[in-house]
Specification:
The protein is of the alpha/beta class. The chain folds into 2 domains: 2-90, Nucleotidyltransferase, domain 5, CATH 3.30.420.40; 112-268, ATPase, nucleotide binding domain (Nucleotidyltransferase, domain 5). The protein has 13 helices and 10 strands. A hairpin with a 3-residue loop joins strand 1 (2-8) and strand 2. The radius of gyration is 20 Å and the shape is globular. It starts with a strand and ends with a helix.
Length: 281
């Protein structure tokens, strides 16, 4: 049985063509992002027909499992219809949110706490089948603690208010052309401020040897755990995380979890491989 699994965001969708046989070869594909909250049916149908189908080269999957940001419950029937229409041989078509995908990739069929830490952030309490509790992330202005966007915001706040060495500010401005004025313009007047803030992550990561920077990052993760995971009241469960921020800062993430009385288990850059394992027998 051939299965097609998708991990989709607004920028890109990663697809995995696999079988339900454990250890079998897997093939990965990529298309532009599919987000049913931001795209209408015709746009999504065009991506499937113009980008996905040519890469499948005649392979007809028997089952499709789609996980994506913006794939809210009320939009899932639309997404299932579009996938089934593009790939009519599939007898099973599922469309779920990215948080359930992260939970299945991280926890399999065991209960646990699943986190997404990338440009944005999210978390959920997982009972082995479904997300049973979720602290609303609220986006990078009202929430998204621990995300790349909020990490970038906290970094700039500390940098321009003198809580970080002046040499660090000079280095950032020299590398990026950023000034306080252009930074404020990018955040308050230009579109996609969250992506701009998250784009500072490589610079932050490159300076983790500075105690002030590593302390700032660790505190950002501690706030994430306190505000988002503590309400679940399940410190007995392992915490797993997917996403670029979780993966690249996994050492500090683990330290922050321990400081909050939590245990950080599996960390994945992408949930795709874990999802393929989830469906393999």
């Amino acid at each position: 049985m051939t299965i097609l699994i998708a991990d989709s965001g607004s920028t890109k969708t990663d697809w995995c063509l696999a079988t339900e046989k454990a250890g079998a070869a897997r093939r990965t594909l990529r298309t532009q992002g599919i987000n049913p909250f931001h795209q209408d049916s015709s746009q999504i149908a065009a991506i499937l027909s113009d980008e996905l189908l040519p890469q499948l080269a005649g392979i007809e999957p028997d089952a499709i499992y789609f996980y994506g940001s913006g794939c809210r419950q009320e939009l899932q029937p639309q997404m299932r219809h579009l996938l089934g229409k593009a790939l009519p041989t599939a007898s099973v078509v599922e469309a779920e949110g990215d948080l359930l995908g992260a939970a299945r990739a991280l926890c399999g069929r065991e209960e646990g706490i699943a986190c997404i830490l990338g440009t944005g952030a999210n978390s959920g309490l997982y009972d082995g089948k479904a997300i049973v509790a979720n602290t609303p992330p609220l986006g990078y202005i009202l929430g998204d603690e621990g995300s790349g966007a909020v990490l970038g915001a906290r970094f700039l706040n500390a940098l321009y208010r003198g809580r970080l060495p002046i040499e660090l500010r000079e280095e950032l401005e020299q590398q990026t052309g950023l000034t306080m004025a252009t930074m404020l313009d990018r955040v308050y007047r230009q579109p996609l401020a969250n992506r701009f803030l998250a784009s500072l992550s490589p610079f932050i990561h490159a300076h983790l040897q500075m105690a002030e920077v590593s302390d700032l990052v660790k505190e950002a993760f501690r706030v994430f755990f306190r505000l988002n995971l503590k309400p679940y009241g399940r410190s007995d469960l392992s915490v797993g995380a997917v996403g670029s921020i979780a993966y690249h800062y996994r050492g500090l993430l683990s330290e922050a979890a321990s400081a909050e009385g939590l245990y950080l288990g599996k960390v994945l850059k992408s949930p795709l491989e874990g999802l393929a394992d989830y469906y393999a027998h």
